[in-house]
Structure formats: C-alpha cells, structure tokens
Amino acid sequence: MSRWLTFLLVCVLGLATLTPTLALADDNAASGDEGQPAHQVNAALELPKMQKILDKIKGQVSGESNDGKLGQLNDMSLELSGNADTLGQALIPQRAQLVAQLAVLGPAPKPNSGVKETPEVTRKRHTLEAQKSKLDDQIKQAEAIKNGSLNLSAQIVNLRRDALKTQLARNSGSIFSAHFWSPLLGNSQDSDKISQFSDELGATIGLSWEDGWRVGTIAWFIAAVLVATLGRRYGEEFLAWISINKLPEGRLRRSFLAAAIALTTLAAVVLAFNFLDQAFTRRQEVSDEVQDFVDKLVQLSVFSGLIAGLGRAFLSTRRPSWRLPAMTNEVAQSLKPYPPIIAALVFVFQGVEAFNSSVGTSLDTTVFAYGMTALLIGAMALSISIRSNRVRRKVLHEGHQPEVKSTLTGLIQMAITLTGIAILVTLAIGYVSLARFLSYELVWTGIVLGSFYLLSHLINDGCESLLSTNNPSGRRIQSSLNIDERHLAQAAALLAALGKTVLILFVVVALLNGTFSTSTPIELMQKAVEFWGGKGLESLSIVPAHLVNAVLCFIVGIYVLRAIKRWLDKDFLPKTTMDIGMRVSLVTLFSNVGYVLVILLTLSTMGLQWNKLAWIVSALSVGIGFGLQEIVKNFISGLILLTERPVKVGDLVSISGIEGDIRRINVRATEIQLSDKSTVIVPNSQLISQNVRNATMGNAQGVVTILLTFPLDIDPVRVREILLEVYNENERILETPEPSVSFKDLTPAGIVLSVTGNVASQRQISGAKSDLLFDILTRLRKEGVVLSKPQTMIIERSKSGNVVVDKLEE
To answer: How do 679-683 and 693-694 pair as beta strands?
Structure first.
C-alpha cells in the first residue's frame, strides 16, 4: 500500500515539474506550418499519464480507511487537478493561433462556386484543422481530468468526515487518561499546520498595518472598542429612558426594558466584531482560509452576544425592581458572573474548533478541544445550580423572605444539574463527542428558551397595553371602531395567544435543528442505532424510536392541551359575556375532545395506521356488549349535556329528591353539591332520561311564599298591611315585582292568606323565608294579632262505657 502511494506521489511531483516547461513551451510555441509545437507533444504524452494516475488514486481511495493516507490521496488529487488545469491553460494559446491561421486561409470554396485554390492551400487547411481538432480533444481531456480530480477530492473529504464521526462516536478515552492530554505535549504534524495558519493570520494583521492602511485599522479598532463599551451603555440608557418616559404605565415597561438590555448587548457585541473584521481583513490580499475563519468568528459573536444579553436581561442587577423572573436580589447577584463567562467560553472554544477545522488538525487534537469544551461548560452548569441553592439556603437561614420558586423553575434547575452531571460522567467514561454535544445543546436550549420567555412577556404585555382603554392607543382604537371594552380585551388575549403560538413554533424548529452542531447527534454504537430503528424486532412490529416519540407526543400534547385549557378558563373566556356555566361547559367539552385527539395522535405516532383500527372497534363492541353499556351511555349523555345544555354548571336542580347546585359535569357523571356541602354523584344518563327540575334555567329569581291562617274575627286589611310592610322592609325582597298578599281560602279553621315576594336568586329563598317568619311573628304579636289555632275534639268516656262528645276546642 505504501509503495503505491509513494509511486503516485512521485508521479504527481513529476507532473508538477512540467508546469514551468509548459509555460516556457507556451512562450516558445513553434510557428512552422506543419510542425507540432513542443507543448502539444508534451500534452499528448502527459495526458494519458494523468488519467492513469487518477484511476490509480480512485482505486486506492475505494479501499482505504486510514485518515492519514486519505489525506495524502486528497493532496495528490488536488495536485493532479492543478497540473491538469495548467496543461489545459497552456493548450489554449496554441488553439487560438491555429484558429487565427485558419482565418487567414479562409473557408474552403464551395464545389459549384467556380473558385479554385491551389493544392498547397488545401493541404495546409486540412493540416491545421486536424491539429485544431486534436487540441480540442486534449483540452477536453485535461478539463475532464481536472473535474474528476476535484470530484475525487470532494469524495475523499466526505470519507474523512464520515470516518472522523465514526471515530468520535467510539470511546476515545477518558479525560483522566494520558492519551487525552497528549496534544499538549505537541504533535509535529499539527504543529506544522498550526504554525502555517498562524503565519497566515500574522500576515493578515501585517497587511492591515502597512502604510496607507494603518490609520483605517486604528479607526476601526477604536470604533469596535467604543461600541462595545460606551455604545452599549448609552444605548441601554436611552432605551431605558424611552421605557420610563414614553411607554404607558404597566408591565410593558419592564418587559420592554429587559428586551432592550438583551438587544443592546447583542448589537454591541456583533458590531464590535464586525468592526474588528473590517479592521484586519478588508484588504483583497487576505487569503480565503483566513477570511472564512474570521467570518466564523463574527457568526459566533451572535451567540455570545445572545448569551450575555439574555443573562443581563434576566438578572437585571442594576434595576432589581424591574426584574422579570421571581428571583431574590442575592441570587441574581450570585449568578451575575456566569452569563459573560459562558459567552466567552462558547466563543473561545467554538473559535478553537473553527481554527482546527481550517487547519485540519488530527483526531487527537480535535478530541482534546471537544473534551475541554464539554468539561468547562459542564462544570459551569453544576456550579450555577450549586451556587444558587447555596445562596437560597443562606437567605432562608438569615430569616429573609425566600423567593417563590415555581415548579417549572425547579424542573429547569434539575435539568441543568442532571445535564451537567451527564456531561462529566460521559467525559469520565470516554465519550467525549457525546459530552460536547450535550454541552452545546444545553447552551442552545438555554438561548432558545430564554429568548422565548423574554419575547412571550413582551408580546403579552404589548398586546395588553396596546388595546387597553387605560392607554391612549386603546381609547383611540375603541373610539375609531366603536366597540365595547370587553371586545378589546378579547382581541388582546387572542393576539397574545397568536404571538405565543408563533413563538412556540419557532422554538420547536430551533430545538430540533440546533445550531452549534451541523449534524444530528452522533451514533455512539451501531447496534444500538439499529435496535433503535427496530432492527431485530420486525416480527413484533415494535420500533423503540416510535415508542419514545409516542411518549413524547403524549406528554407534549397533554401539556399543550392543559395550557390552552388554562388560557381559555383564566384569560379569554372571562373577558366574554358568557356566564360561568357556559364557560365551564366549553372548557370541559374542549378538554374531552382534546384528550381524544391527543390519544389518537399518540397511536398514529406509534405507527398505528387509521385503516388498521378495526380490531380496536371490534374490541370496543365486545366490551360494550359485556358491560360497557352504562359507561358509553353516560359518556354520550355527558356530551349531550355539554352541547344541548339542559343543565349547566351553577344551576340549582332537583332530581329524585336530591336538590343542589351542579358543580362539575364530567365524562361519566355529574357532581351536585347539596346545601350541607356534601356532594352527590349522579350518572349523566339520569339527567337525560329522568325528570329534572332546573330552578335557575329560565329565571334566576326566586319566589318566597308563606301561607298563614288567621281567626275569622281579624281585620284582614290591617293584617295585609302588616305582612306587606314586613316584606318591603326585608332587604332581600325585590321591589320589582312588588310583594303581594292574596286571599287563598276560607276554612272552618280561619282565613288563609298567602304572602309572596321575589328574591334575586333561588339560593336566597330559604334564608329570606326564615328572616320573614321571624319578622312576621314578632310584628303580629306586637300588634296583638294571633294566628288561628287548630281545632281539637275532646272525647270523654263515662263510667258506664258510653262515649260522650263533650265539646270542640280550638
């Protein structure tokens, strides 16, 4: 193998020596009529050799896996491409000379034109045309060899990249091993490459410092420093002044200021690096490799600026009262150094990786750079978690008010801690590439979620402030469109929800695609990847990847469903004219339908096709036949209750001797709360099939009716006045319709009067009736009016045993 490589290398070097000869031959081209120029003879001899070398390189590449030998073959193919291009360019002047000679001779006369030319001219034209045709073929062959060599070089680069990924996916050795730290001891091959590229960077700086360019370089450098320091500071102060003095009072000021801090920091960092780019690489003599490397650094400045800006916006140590997240000032001060440190680490180590890519360093050097990146970022993640917990414990120990940490905040902190531990563990066991991937995904996820948190607050506060009637913009919109205030509140809630939905879509796309890594996570073990794709489980139709995707789909679907349900219940529906019962019914119906859709989507993600659900339908039909009738009947009845709404949440109903308020309509049963605060669970089918009294369906008012029996000798007009006075004096009795007293009946027991009055709701009847009875009895006793006593019959039995009716008493 090495002998073939040596032979090919000698051939390529031999071709390289032809370049001066070809150029010299081009200058000393023969001008004889029939003679062949020297460089044409060389082309006829060298082109077959070049094609033979290209074929041999292709044969070597097809069976080679060593990265070093592939690198040599790539250099040889590039060298061969250059020689073929040089040879083709050398043939072009000769072709032009032949074309000029043919133009002097002119075209051949037509047979019937009557023009004749000498045999010498005809022979000369034929010779020149043959030479031109041969040159055309040689130029095409040289171009084909050039393109073939370039294509082969691109294939070799892809092979080396794939081989590098494969080697990185394997266990490259623990960071505690001596092999990992070997690049620090020096690598001769990498040292030469690094030294060569460093010389190019130094030459670029030297170009920018030459006479005539020095002043511009200094000016661009000073501009970069001023933008990064004074520009960021005064830009932030200006936006803060706008937030305080120009924006309306409310939460928009706080979210706008946080966004302004992040934006000014990002703009300052990016502009500073662009100015530095202009300072050192604005000359045309800068090499493409150096320019590409500097462009990568400028791109990295965007991520570093985002990290630093988001960190300053969240912590807001200069204005603690304007801080968006619920965080104590002690915790914010303790975390203040981390955003700029993480931004610097990302920039430095991504810059080192870009440097290694430009130089083409060896695998050991690349692994070392990956390991150092993952080590420092993982250590920073654990340090953030540990330090924040320590400060919180200190604040609690000193007796200060601890911060109210939500469940989501706790989950985020737990995820950071676990990811940091995972990074260090993978470094310890030797999977350096996986640790580097986890570290950059942790940083990228933090950037994406932090931007979403900031922008979602800004959108929500902006929509609310823009359409609020407390602000001039809202009042202007209300007067222009002549709409009700609650409609503006509904529009604000819808616009905020739409904006958050768009942000969520961007978050999902950003998290799935990533930025720091140009490819998907590297497959660590081929067997694990094959098993993940279902290899070996074909008979069971089980694909682990589909199962995991289904679980993730179910979890995300439930979370989104609950978030939308919470938004409808807390934000949007309260701003409409719907009553609470209608709102609860809509939320419940949406929740039931949403759960069904989430389950169906989860089944589809698992690979279960819709046209293959016949077995599920069959199983359900068998289950319904053997005992699910009641469950299905109650489920359908629940849907009917939610759509037709004969009863709704908040109604006062009576069914089968049970009277109470409906608190919840579930899928299977309805909860009715009684007056003693106990709850009765009634199946939904009973509310559909039985007679139900809904006291609050048609009219929300209640009627308080009291029947009283008075003796026959009372003054009915005076009693009527007393009863009406009692009803009118009670604060629960409505003035419209007015209370009334009606003569119900005249019985031997006395006069029966009915007193009626209306109250605001059915639930006030019992309390109002009790108060009215107390007041009526008190007033009647005060006025000397007594109620009729029931008549009793006294039966006396004589000594002889005869029954004698003595008298009747009341």
So the answer is: unpaired
